[in-house]
């Protein structure tokens, strides 16, 4: 059923979605708490419950399917099942897909100005979204995949720090690194990417907000390191938007590879990191890459189908 829903939706909106963009998950709406429990039970038999938490006054469950749903460009394994909000009438069934993009929201709106965009959720602190409706179904566009957000939600100190970044909105902060990938180890830091053409101005602001930060300004970037409630933090800034920075592209392609190759592969990456390897070399070791940093960037623009052919191990 999920594959037919995605197929039908894609027939009208495939021009909006680039081959390397990830269809992160699909959403199945329920019209009552009783149906919510029934649908949860059904997906319990088809996969694993990753998280169930109250959001907006009602529970939302996210499942990882044992068998991926195949779409035009790739594979989707996550299904989100929200209970209905109190007093709101909803129609049962698949309602929307969520897509991880590497254009800014502003660029997406400018590219297709005739679409009726809903930008009310752009101010969310953790994973802002831009929404568009096509008939009875919606597409929500994000900068991060849902499993990355779930990994962050499991680290309360990381969430607390992300809220501290609200005053840095002019610098388009974007969380990166191993924590969103769920492959962090005890020594891992939380990476935050920013964009600026005035490193001195950003350094001054970091000094005000985080006085203990050690800041290095180089010719083309700024790096600031400090701790927040015992969590190591690294802020990295350059003149490129974070979506186009190498660190974010590494995160995106690595996350897709982990999902394509599964939990055993993920555990091997974690073990390599515990043995002292950095993230990209750990992927390089498992995938037999000649130059892990460059090869991963080169794979970034492949569709899931192309990527899977490239990385079969």
Describe this protein's structure.
The protein is of the alpha+beta class. It has three domains: 2-147, 2,3-Dihydroxybiphenyl 1,2-Dioxygenase, domain 1 (Roll); 170-239, Beta Polymerase, domain 2; 246-311, no CATH class. Helix content is 37%, strand content 28%. An eight-stranded mixed beta sheet has the order 2-3-4-1-5-8-7-6, with helices on both faces. A five-stranded mixed beta sheet has the order 9-10-13-12-11, with helices on both faces. Strand 7 (130-134) and strand 8 (137-142) form a beta hairpin. Helix 8 (246-261) packs across helix 11 (292-299) and helix 8 packs across helix 12.
Question: What is the topological layout?
Answer:
Layout lengths: L1 H12 L8 E8 L3 H12 L2 E9 L2 E13 L4 E8 L10 E8 L4 H7 L5 E2 L11 E5 L2 E6 L3 H8 L2 H9 L9 E3 L1 H4 L8 E6 L3 H11 L4 E4 L4 E7 L2 E8 L7 H16 L1 H12 L4 H9 L4 H8 L4 H8 L2
Parallel strand pairs: 1-4, 5-8, 10-13
Antiparallel strand pairs: 1-5, 2-3, 3-4, 6-7, 7-8, 9-10, 11-12, 12-13
Helix pairs in contact: 8-11, 8-12, 9-10, 10-11
Based on the model shown, name its key terms.
313 residues; alpha+beta; 2,3-Dihydroxybiphenyl 1,2-Dioxygenase, domain 1; Beta Polymerase, domain 2; 3 domains; eight-stranded mixed β-sheet; 12 helices; 37% helix
